[in-house]
Amino acid sequence: MRNHTEIELVRKSSYGDQEAFTKLVRKYSNVVYGVAFSVLNDFHSSQDIAQEAFVKAWYNMEQLRDIEKFGSWVISITRNLCTDRYRKRQLAERPLSEAMDLPDDLSLEERINRKSDKQAVWKALSVLDEKYRTTTLMYYIGGFNTREISQLLDVPLGTTESRLRRSKAILKKELIELVEHTAQDLKLGEDFVGKVKARIKNALQVRLVSDLANAKKYYQDVLGFIVDGWGHVEREGVGFLLQQAEKPEDVRPNAKPSKENYPNDWPGPPTSWDTYAYSDFDGVQSLYEEFVAKGAVIAYAPQIEDMGSNKWKEFAVKDLDGYVIVFGGSN
């Protein structure tokens, strides 16, 4: 069973929280990369596949049926992408030993030694069956223990331990030590996480405001958004780009729409909407209590609507220029 923190990250990710998803990428990046490399035996292709796997997971979170199995799910996505890559052969493969970027401050001798190490490691790993190679790479590059690997691959713990022992026996002591040493050079870091994060960015709505400095302060101090110097404000998948209006009349929050937009049995919202943000039932209440405590302008308090098999709760806040943000979610 996954720990509560990871389940919460998956839940938040399903509602568009990019920061929560970034933490999942950081946790699983190397194990996903290891699975891809065990199939493709190519550094650049494996990195590409790892990126694609996380991006595909982000845009298809609604397809994840069990929030406790995010890791297993993203690994299955990775394997499917590897199969497609293998079939289509879209990229020319380069051996890892040729593709690895080495630090500029290494001497020529160190560069030769490191390349030789990598060549020896991957030549040795290539003789392993894929199931042994996958387990070995998940262990040494992914950094997961045998119990975690068993959960991710959905195989018994004894099977995983047996595969790892078998790999060690085949590779012998010297090569295993070389794998352990070389694995540290192969791990994906924050650069990879940043690339994935850049690809899952949602479009930002531009909002003209009457006083940019005060607007940024309100979004940061009262609404809890992350704010940067350019006017980007983001929180849990909700984001805007605030810009200073030239004239007060250029600031135009939405008007309340016609009732013709809604089903006949629903009178419509009590006020206009500028942005609708999705959360879950309990999350909506927590946000409301947080905003009230910080003195936010409440457009309307939480309302609960019976939708048959479940209930829908929503409330709305206003910013200093009257833009309305609605937070809604189901139980």
From TrEMBL:
Q: Does the keyword Transcription regulation apply?
A: yes
Per UniProt, the keywords (alphabetical) are: Sigma factor, Transcription, Transcription regulation
Supply one GO molecular-function term. Answer: sigma factor activity
> The organism sits in which domain of life?
Bacteria
Presence of the UniProt keyword Transcription regulation in the record: yes
Q: Which GO terms describe its biological process?
A: DNA-templated transcription initiation
| InterPro entries for the chain | Glyas_Bleomycin-R_OHBP_Dase (IPR029068), RNA_pol_sigma-70-like (IPR039425), RNA_pol_sigma-70_dom (IPR014284), RNA_pol_sigma70_r2 (IPR007627), RNA_pol_sigma70_r4_t2 (IPR013249), RNA_pol_sigma_r2 (IPR013325), RNA_pol_sigma_r3/r4-like (IPR013324), VOC_core (IPR037523)
Per its UniProt record, what Pfam families does this chain match?
Sigma70_r2 (PF04542), Sigma70_r4_2 (PF08281)
Its family? Answer: Belongs to the sigma-70 factor family. ECF subfamily.
Protein's name in the database? Uncharacterized protein
Q: What is the lineage of its organism?
A: Bacteria, Bacillati, Bacillota, Bacilli, Bacillales
